[in-house]
Specification:
Distance between the termini: 73 Å
Radius of gyration: 30 Å
Order of helices and strands: HHHHHHHHHHHEHEHEEHEHEEEEEHEEHH
Largest sheet: 10 strands, mixed
Mean pLDDT: 84
Structural class: alpha/beta
Shape: globular
Number of helices: 18
Low-confidence stretches: 1-9, 180-189
Strand order of the largest sheet: 3-2-1-4-5-7-6-10-12-11
Length: 534
């Protein structure tokens, strides 16, 4: 059954496609990144404006319930002229409210939008830095074009798409998908799929304390973690968010994303490289979640040669930043209790150049689990990816209500590459996703292995997971490739060989019979014309 026009008009991708199409044809709309940032800024204004309007409605209702007249001048002055909210809603000056913007005549829209941005930056220290001021007057779209885009954005309401969704992330993901050719990993332009973030969060359970992402992108890790905390514990104020992002535009998106969700955060005062300017140096975190750039080159600086982050190991190879990310993450994990879950390309599992670092990580018992994920989870790459879990406490004890056993000298290997039965439809390239049942199953495998009462020497399911001791890993030259340890079942061994041999013999006999008949026919044909065949 075909969707009706009303359904299509409230489809997020349909709206974004229309906006993209308008901007693609518009004069002065700028580069891919400028179009994307313009759209995200508009959506940001739309959502903080909508949240403000909702906050005012709730405030009026509360005043009426308290027996006060919300329209009385003295009440207006006391409660509405500089309203404060406790749910992450921001007070907006009149010129910054979406109700003002949407009612502005088309010829004045570019100026009105930049006025709104300037006013927000001047009145809110939390929202300052979420956008580039003068975005719209610099581009100076025609009145007709900017009006059409604003009207489309007006359709994107949390009442329609759900307040709890990572809408900035979804829009960001859409633009990466549509313009993947412009989005290289080295520019920090990969958006981590929701299901992958949910898997990491389900594994390490960042329910309280401090959470850090050294390459936080648009903040998706934080948003998804906050959703998990709400579903499990209910109080996101128990987690303190820290992050860093190198790309200025992406840094702004992260601040925008977190501000929309009312999440308190510290992303530093600027966008900068985590390697050359660690904005959170000397701080140790309870949890770290990250999706660093895969196989990042040109990361090294001569000033990093004797950096304290790898003083206990060796300097990571300048040809690839994978192990630099690992050691950076390890350097920020809280001693004796910190847990990290992060993604790396599979090459890091047995990289010869980083052998000595990997060997020492294993000998120091920092690696807790290695999980290979299905291919094609990401929109902009089908590279095979591994989830690493580092743990500063493998000795055991209580963790989120679970009693953990001593896992010293053990690593859990999991191989989820066959979990591809859930394709994502309507994508331009093949893509799969992990559904909630699969995420829960993977987390259960990991948590059961951790829990008291489990025998780590006999914890295995062929072709899925296996707990392996340090001695066996040493025998395998410290490789962390799961296929070296997880038992593979040779399904050919299940063949009934007696039946198979009889089948082959029968086919051979039939083949010989046909060959003899063919030779006989050929011999008779040649004899008929006076020739014989020896």
């Amino acid at each position: 059954m075909a969707k009706n026009k009303q359904d299509e008009s409230f489809n997020l991708e349909n709206i974004l496609f229309k906006c993209r199409d308008i901007l693609r044809q518009a004069r002065n709309s700028g580069s891919f990144f400028e179009k994307r940032d313009m759209m995200l800024t508009l959506i940001f204004l739309r959502f903080i404006g909508e949240k403000f309007d909702d906050g005012i409605i709730k405030l009026r209702q509360q005043l009426i319930a308290d027996g006060l007249d919300p329209d009385a001048p003295e009440i207006q002055a006391a409660f509405f002229e500089d309203a404060t909210f406790t749910d992450g809603t921001y007070f907006l000056p009149v010129e910054s409210r979406w109700s003002t913007i949407i009612n502005t005549p088309a010829p004045q829209l570019n100026v009105a939008l930049d006025t709104a941005l300037h006013s927000i930056a001047a009145t809110s220290k939390h929202l300052k830095g979420c956008f580039v001021e003068s975005t719209f007057t610099t581009r100076n779209l025609s009145p007709n074009d900017i009006k059409k885009v604003v009207d489309e954005v007006n359709k994107i309401s949390h009442k329609t798409f759900g307040e709890e969704k990572d809408l900035i992330g979804r829009v960001y993901e859409y633009f990466l998908k549509e313009f993947a050719v412009n989005a290289t990993k080295e520019e920090g332009e990969y958006y981590t799929p929701h299901d992958v973030v949910q898997l990491i969060a389900a594994m390490i359970e960042p329910f309280d304390g401090t959470l850090y992402d050294p390459c936080c992108g648009s903040g998706g890790m934080f948003i998804q973690s906050a959703d998990l905390i709400k579903s499990k514990q209910g109080d996101i104020s128990r987690i303190n968010i820290y992050g860093q992002e190198k790309e200025p535009a992406t840094y702004r998106l992260a601040k925008m994303n977190l501000a929309l969700r009312g999440l308190s955060h510290n992303l530093g005062n600027e966008a900068d490289s985590t390697f050359t300017h660690d904005l959170h140096k000397g701080i140790y975190f309870d949890y770290i979640m990250a999706n660093p750039p895969f196989n990042l080159k040109s990361w090294y600086d001569d000033n990093l040669k004797n950096d304290s982050r790898w003083a206990d190991y060796t300097t990571p190879p300048d040809s690839n930043a994978n192990y630099a990310w690992i050691l950076h993450i390890l350097s920020h994990l809280r001693h004796k209790s910190g847990v990290a879950g992060f993604l790396l390309a599979n090459g890091a599992l047995n990289d010869d150049v980083a052998f000595e670092i990997r060997k020492k990580l294993i000998e120091n018992d920092k690696v807790e689990a290695i999980i290979i994920l299905p291919r094609e989870l990401f929109i902009t790459t089908d590279i095979s990816v591994t989830l690493w879990i580092l743990n500063q406490n493998k000795k055991g004890g209580n963790y989120h209500g679970r009693e953990l056993r001593d896992r010293s000298g053990e690593i859990l290997f999991m191989d989820l590459r066959t979990w591809t039965e859930n394709p994502v439809k309507s994508e331009q390239k093949k893509k799969v996703r992990l559904v909630s049942e699969q995420i829960q199953r993977a987390a259960d495998i990991y948590h059961t292995w951790q829990n008291s009462g489990t025998d780590g020497t006999d914890y295995a399911v062929p072709e899925l997971y296996r707990s392996v001791g340090k001695d066996e890993i040493k025998e395998n030259q410290y490789t962390l490739t799961p296929s070296k340890y997880i038992k593979f079942i040779d399904h050919d061994l299940e063949i009934d060989y007696d039946t198979e041999i009889k089948r082959i013999q029968s086919e051979m006999q039939e083949l010989i019979k046909r060959e003899k008949a063919s030779q006989q026919m050929l011999s008779e044909a040649f004899r008929g014309i006076g020739y014989g065949i020896d």
